[in-house]
Amino acid sequence: MSDKPLGKQTHEDAVSNPKTEEMAKNRDDGYGKYLTSNQGLRVNDDQNSLKGGERGPSLLEDFLFREKMTHFDHERIPERVVHARGVAAHGYFEAYGNATHLTKAHFLQPGVVTPVFTRFSTVAGSRGASDLARDVRGFAVKFYTQEGVYDLVGNNMPVFFIQDSIKFPDFIHAVKPEPHNEIPQGASAHDTFYDFISANPEATHMLLWAMSDRALPRSLRMMEGFGVHTFRFVNAEGKWRFVKFHWKPKLGTHSVLWDEAQQISGKDQDFHRRDLWANIEMGAYPEWELGVQVVEEEDEHKFDFDLLDATKLIPEELVPVQLIGKMVLNRNVDNYFAETEQVAFCLSHIVPGIDFSNDPLLQGRLFSYLDTQLKRLGGPNFHEIPINRSLAPVHNNQRDGHMRQTINKGQVAYGPNLLNDQYPKQAPQSEGGFSSVYERVEGPKIRRRSKSFIDFYSQARLFWNSQSEPEKAHIVKALRFELSHVQTPWIRERTLAQLTQVDHDLASRVAEGLGMDVPSTEGMQLNYGAIGADDKAADFQSAPAKDNVGSSPHLSLAADSPINQDKGSVKTRQIAILATDGADVAAISELMKTFMEQGAQTAIVATHLGTLKGKGGEEILINWTFQSTSSALFDAVYVAAGAQSVRKLKQDFDAVRFVNEAFRHCKPLAASAEGVELLQAAAYPGAEGILDAEGVVTSDSTDVAELAEEFATAIKQHRFFSRELEAVPA
Ligand code: HDD
């Protein structure tokens, strides 16, 4: 019996890095091996329990049954209290080497390549919730640097709902399913969330982000990431500067519509997870560039917001983002539980060259993450779990605890010691010893929100002003949807009161959909959120939003936004080819070849599964039927030529609906020859002008070369919101 796997290629053969190699001793695929107990005993019968007689009672002696069943009974660990649903992948980070003057962090020095493990998540839903919930996405990166583990635990939005972490449990209790009936799952559209929002105007800015297209990413590969807080970079001379971290996706930042998101949740609630997995498996590795906004220490107070306030961003027009490295995710996990579930991110995992700021949200997070891992992973040795293990050597006097793996030798477990020559020894900074930034701190011991945090509406207005018209319409529809699910009328009214502080047009458009008037805020206490029992409420009421906030084009996802400039690409885009028996198979094959060469992915959707028989007798494999998929799962739709095929498609309501929905979701559409007739058939209310609309490419000819080029240009634009009509469901 050989212990060698029989010719199976594992992930580590495919893409290797130092962390992959370091974890090798913990991997096992059981292939070509005998079944054993956990003690290595070979098992002779794993199908039958030990019984007294063939039809008799089971025996307590059955240690194999008991071991197997006990292990099974203990398989689950508590899911994360937030960010429970996630997906992760391995990869590497490569420093561009242009940040040396800003930070001494080794992983940011020229030529250094560092293994990473990145987990994306939704916040409110439980582990089994849908990927397409309207929600913030977590974006957590673990760098296995040569100086120890560094965790950058961010989100896909640059601000947060609250300013002080003591409010985090309240905020999460408000957004999570309501405690009496555990409804709704993974959704913010309910009373307790908006009760909180309506009493905490500091959340207004983030509310608009959560209602915007950012909350519905097209793909985890197509979203930005943000460290949110202001951190510090410290260089080799000890000079420090404030920094904000950004991740910029190479494929641009794109979203789906809410109607699509709801359909995707029904057709494939693993849509994001599957998309990330599949693209990594086929070698279409997602990439992001890491950027920083840098603010000199002496410029701390030059902004009209506080750098320590996590509900504010620094507009990129004020402080441009400098790109300092790139991350590539190139390997899926071998085991979801061992890696994605057991990975433990902590803000306190830091390296020399980076430091914290006094942001009170960040300061509380420094406590919460370590604390939560102790509960979730069962004890203080979670750093020894393979996915969490540092690549830099670990030596200290911490000992014992549940499931300890390290076998610490010797009689000494304390410092200072003379018995062991002071080892393990404190490291001077010149040898990589971490030292906090030297800073004078003084002030009264006080529980109070800084007055510099009390402008709750100006940046919300900046965000609103920065959205294109279609994006504004999406925010209005999202708020109408959400507030329609709120049962308590005065919570709707108070939320409208918060919105009217941001922009009257926003509030009145939402109010119209709710059949309400924008309430007068005269005498209304808008803020309960930053105030202790003995504080004067009036001292903490935000001034109205400033008139002259202007706009920040970087905050929009429109095709012409600076964040999407030069990023239009058909790479990894999913194109549905609608055809059935009698279609022009030669033209379909040519179109597929053209798009696959450009890195797009195509799938044939037909009236039946199996093989499609072309008009000349050629055959081609069908991927999906109209019953098993939906246009919501694709980026673009092409209707193939072929009179017989198109006649059948026109008679199939699901095929017609497929096209109609793709049109109303503003997606690129194309059709050749008779295929155009299916577009016409789909022009029922809401899509009458389908053939003349932007992003619809048709050709009389069956020759697809020219059409493919024009279609590709349309796909690069992602969506054609100019066609958006009131008929599109909210
Ligand atoms: Fe948090 C998880 C991001 C505020 C407490 N958070 C968690 C994860 C991400 C974030 C991405 C999932 C990590 C993973 O994939 O395992 N959290 C944020 C961001 C915040 C933020 C960007 C604001 C800027 N979080 C925040 C506050 C607190 C927490 C203010 C508490 C004081 N977060 C937690 C936690 C979690 C967590 C309870 C749950 C599971 C975990 O930590 O590992 O500790």
TrEMBL record:
Catalytic reaction(s) noted: 2 H2O2 = O2 + 2 H2O
GO molecular function: catalase activity; heme binding; metal ion binding
One of the GO BP terms on file: response to oxidative stress
Start and end residues of each Catalase core domain: 36-423
EC number annotated for this UniProt entry: 1.11.1.6
Catalytic machinery residues: 83, 155
Biased composition (Polar residues): 35-50
Residues that, per the record, bind heme: 80, 119, 168, 365, 369, 376
Biased amino acid composition, Basic and acidic residues: 1-31
Cofactor needs: heme
Keywords, ordered alphabetically: Heme, Hydrogen peroxide, Iron, Metal-binding, Oxidoreductase, Peroxidase
GO cellular component assignments: cytosol
InterPro entries per UniProt: Catalase, Catalase_clade2, Catalase_clade2_helical, Catalase_core, Catalase_haem_BS, Catalase_immune_responsive, Catalase_large_C, Catalase_sf
Region (Disordered): 1-54, 543-563
Enzyme type, top EC level: oxidoreductase
PANTHER family attached to this UniProt entry: CATALASE (PTHR42821), CATALASE-B (PTHR42821:SF1)
Functional note: Decomposes hydrogen peroxide into water and oxygen; serves to protect cells from the toxic effects of hydrogen peroxide.
Similarity comment text for this entry: Belongs to the catalase family. HPII subfamily.
Protein's name in the database: Catalase
Source species: Hymenobacter polaris
